[in-house]
């Protein structure tokens, strides 16, 4: 179990820690253990020599001790080879190949142990069941310790690399003690101890992103939830939780607009009927809070961030405003426990590179709508521009438009793509005070969860007029008196695109995400495939025409 949890943390900075990656890890390790049990039983029956059993344990321990030193290079090599050769399902194939190469061999060897121990511990068939039961109990206790200790003790305290070394060292001690007591295999013991010592010394010296310039890498570490990397660049400081895809938070060293999606999201306070309060779900390092503090200094801002270590880094490296309260909690759970209402709610919560499924459903967005003041606006950062039938953005946009339209409105939801990035900002407006006066308060109880319902003459949301260039620019100027921001809002208005209002007759029902059915990880994986295909396309063409030598020349 310790190896399994370590595997998830080794792969997460490259492939994410999504359910897809966890499935691959668990599946491949179970395959390795099953094959090990089969072959271990055959080997024990054919040659019941305990020396060979302890040699297999020793080999597995040495292999695991080398994972923190060599594993990251294998993962990068596999990723580099596949990214120019695989067109679809990159995450699945790359994670599976990495697991097969890095983790299957030692887990196969460990899988042979139980069958061998059963052979050596059984003196007669009269108590064979008791022997098997005790061995199973020992296995289970070891699994319990291997589950809780890495998650709650070693990984948060000393990191993934040292966790591998701690557990491989404990495993290696077993065969060494056996062989020393038997005065056998002294060379094997010495070599194994030497390899372990080399890995223990060298592994902590290089991180997951070992190719990064050490002069710009300000911090690299781990929390219970994430791999964390802070880079201090000439014009900005950035936080990443994944070394291959994307930036999670950024602070510009010059005051003003960031040039990133945060600027487009600043349209939300201008679109809302009032701009007195804001809630940020997925606070990260506080970029939204800093921008709101700069342009809307009188606005009361509150943040929610599940990872306490990110909040600590925000204060240490990112100048997060000290007067903005940040609650360490899951965003949805926080909403469920809160009664507060806000003029603006900004949703920017990601699990590595995908939206958590519980924060992408009809139920979640209904909760957000209920926490908005009349005429309040929600803005959601969708970090993967992926259009077309069956895309993640189609599902999210349909779900959100259905929730905010409710049963009696249309035209509530708009999107704006961010130039030069893979981001899209979605804006949705809650019913205004006047709109709530129609249809008995425009109650969402008229619509069942995940369902589409509408009255015969729905109201047209004021959002349709709010997104016009003149209106958006005027609102931004009136509330901030900042000419640069007001001018930028004119440009944002030109990018505003209405989201089609869901209809029960158009097949939209199947696109609505619910707690019961929200396959955001699979949909996100398709979007990542599209991004990789676009970025890696030229390299694939070089590989097809000039082969590996040509590709290496281009990379150099």
From TrEMBL:
Record has Membrane as a keyword: yes
Start and end residues of each PABS domain: 194-434
One Pfam family of this chain: Spermine_synth
Single GO MF descriptor: transferase activity
InterPro entries noted in UniProt: PABS, SAM-dependent_MTases_sf
CDD domains noted in UniProt: AdoMet_MTases (cd02440)
Record keywords: Membrane, Polyamine biosynthesis, Transferase, Transmembrane, Transmembrane helix
Transmembrane regions: 20-41, 53-84, 90-110, 131-155, 161-180, 187-211
PROSITE patterns, A to Z: PABS_2
GO BP: polyamine biosynthetic process
Active site: 348
Family statement: Belongs to the spermidine/spermine synthase family.
Protein name per Swiss-Prot or TrEMBL: Spermidine synthase
The organism of origin for this protein: Bifidobacterium platyrrhinorum
């Amino acid at each position: 179990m310790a190896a399994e949890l370590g595997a998830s943390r080794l792969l997460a900075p490259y492939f994410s820690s999504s359910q897809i990656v966890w499935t691959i890890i668990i599946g491949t390790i179970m395959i390795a253990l099953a094959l090990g049990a089969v072959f271990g039983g055959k080997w024990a029956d054919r040659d019941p020599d305990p020396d060979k059993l302890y040699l297999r344990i020793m080999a597995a321990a040495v292999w695991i001790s080398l994972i923190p030193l060599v594993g990251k290079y294998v993962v990068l090599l596999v990723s580099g080879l596949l990214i120019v050769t695989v067109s679809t399902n990159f995450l699945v194939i790359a994670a599976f190949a990495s697991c097969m190469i890095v983790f299957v061999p030692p887990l196969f060897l460990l899988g042979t142990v139980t069958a061998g121990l059963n052979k050596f511990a059984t003196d007669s068939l009269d108590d064979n069941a008791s022997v098997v039961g005790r061995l199973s109990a020992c296995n289970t206790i070891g699994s319990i310790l291997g589950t809780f200790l890495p998650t709650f003790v070693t990984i948060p305290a000393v990191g993934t690399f040292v966790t591998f070394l701690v557990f491989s060292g404990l495993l290696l001690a077993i065969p060494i003690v056996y062989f020393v007591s038997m005065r056998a295999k002294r060379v094997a013991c010495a070599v194994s101890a030497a390899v372990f010592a080399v890995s223990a010394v060298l592994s902590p010296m290089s991180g997951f992103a070992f190719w990064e310039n050490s002069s710009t890498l300000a911090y690299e570490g781990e929390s219970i939830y994430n791999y964390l990397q802070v880079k201090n660049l000439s014009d900005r400081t950035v936080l990443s939780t994944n070394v291959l895809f994307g930036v999670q938070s950024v602070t510009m060293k010059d005051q003003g607009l960031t040039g990133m999606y945060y600027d487009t999201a600043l349209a939300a306070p201008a679109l809302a009927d009032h701009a007195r309060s804001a809630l940020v779900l997925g606070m990260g390092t506080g970029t939204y809070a800093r921008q709101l503090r700069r342009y809307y200094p009188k606005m009361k801002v509150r943040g929610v961030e599940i990872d306490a270590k990110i909040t600590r880094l925000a204060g240490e490296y990112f100048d997060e405003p000290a007067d903005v309260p940040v609650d360490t909690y899951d965003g949805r759970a926080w909403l469920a426990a809160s009664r507060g209402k806000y003029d603006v709610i900004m949703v920017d919560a990601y699990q590595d590179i995908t939206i958590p499924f519980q924060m992408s459903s009809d139920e979640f967005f209904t909760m957000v709508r209920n926490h908005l003041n009349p005429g309040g606006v929600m803005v959601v950062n969708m970090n993967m521009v992926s259009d077309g039938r069956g895309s993640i953005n189609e599902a999210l946009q349909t779900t959100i438009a259905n929730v905010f339209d409710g049963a009696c409105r249309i035209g509530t939801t708009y999107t704006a793509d961010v130039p030069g990035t893979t981001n899209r900002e979605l804006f949705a407006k809650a019913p205004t005070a006047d709109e709530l006066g129609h249809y008995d308060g425009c109650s969402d109880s008229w619509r069942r969860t995940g369902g589409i319902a509408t009255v015969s003459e729905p109201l047209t949301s004021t959002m349709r007029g709010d997104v016009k260039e003149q209106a958006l620019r005027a609102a931004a100027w009136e509330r901030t008196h900042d000419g640069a921001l007001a001018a930028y809002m004119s440009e944002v208005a030109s990018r505003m695109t209405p989201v089609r209002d869901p209809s029960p007759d158009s097949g939209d029902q199947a696109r609505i995400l619910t707690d019961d059915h929200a396959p955001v990880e699979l949909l996100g994986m398709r979007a990542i495939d599209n991004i990789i295909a676009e970025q890696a396309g030229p390299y694939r063409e070089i590989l097809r025409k000039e082969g590996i030598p040509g590709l290496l020349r281009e990379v150099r």
